[in-house]
């Protein structure tokens, strides 16, 4: 397969991009974090045959699962490329395995700050070229139906997985590093930031039309720690991507920052240069709008747990949410990823109700 052809089909539904840029929309755009995932039987079928990271690394498979939710849910206004945030630690030389029912596992996590020196920064982005190939293939196969979102994990979130060796309820090893070795922590965060900037630029060159940065572990940080260990890097990522795209004469794309649990710092997030701020369900839409002002798009934020309610309840909650956010500068989504046992019908009701709401 030749992935070099960048003459992509014309985009027919640009609601998501218009909302991100602050332009008027006919309907509120909607997509769902983890919309390609285990709640879909057709995703399970692909996973029954292929290991998780094999799906990520095989453009035809990554493209197929990216397109699956679009076939089922006609109201979706975006797709997000199927991959994972942990492909970056892999490209830096770390082993990451996906264990069924358990999630990601690093057999050899970072145990000592001296091991930061073993990370292979050089060539990391070229080792991620398969993500670019998947994006390019998907841009062709999606036939301009909706835009394609690229993404990355933010430096603090990636560092947490690299130190903990997987998901962690307490992040206690990571917090220990923040306290004992702040200089080394900043060195690692800066390294990750450099790789992330080039990785995101590569995704845009491959065809990504909007980029989302997942700071999924912000819920472990106080406002002070968020200011020290997250926001400087989030800001560098935004300005770094913008500057390189300018230098290379590539059209700019809007960017979203999603700091889960970062509701205490929306004022700071509003100054990072991102067009869109993602909100988890703990944040009140009206309060959030007051804090960030009128020049930023908000995304979110129904509790994923609400999708276990009755269809009529989901509809009421969704319409209520959309009314609170309003039609201007708003992208409807959940407040975090959809969970594996969610009934498929709930997704239909959620996406349909967003379009009905205003
Ligand atoms: O076996 C499987 O199929 C594993 C389930 C799964 C899926 C479907 C994982 C493992 N990752 C993914 C895909 C994925 N991951 C996407 C795909 C695109 C889409 O949204 O449709 C995206 C955007 C991610 C990003 C991701 N991976 C994040 C950030 C978003 C978030 O949820 O906060 C994080 C934290 C990860 C790590 C990860 N990968 C997988 C799991 C179960 C986890 C979380 C582990 C944990 O902390 O407990």
Summarize the structure.
This protein is α/β, with parallel strands linked by helices and 358 residues long. It is built from 15 helices and 9 strands.
Structure characterization notes:
This protein has helices at 15-21, 41-49, 52-57, 59-72, 87-91, 129-141, 155-164, 172-180, 182-206, 223-229, 231-247, 266-269, 285-292, 311-325, 344-357, and strands spanning 79-80, 97-99, 103-105, 148-153, 210-215, 255-259, 276-278, 297-302, 330-334. It contains 15 helices and nine strands. The protein has 358 residues and is of the alpha/beta class. Helix 4 crosses helix 6 (129-141) and helix 14 (311-325) runs parallel beside helix 15. The protein has a seven-stranded parallel beta sheet, sandwiched between helices.
**Regions with little confidence, pLDDT below 50 for 5+ residues:** none
Q: In what range is the share of β-strand residues?
A: 5-15%
Helix content: 40-55%
The small molecules bound here are:
coproporphyrinogen I
Written as H for each helix and E for each strand, in order along the chain, the element string is: HHHHEHEEHEHHHEHHEHEHEHEH
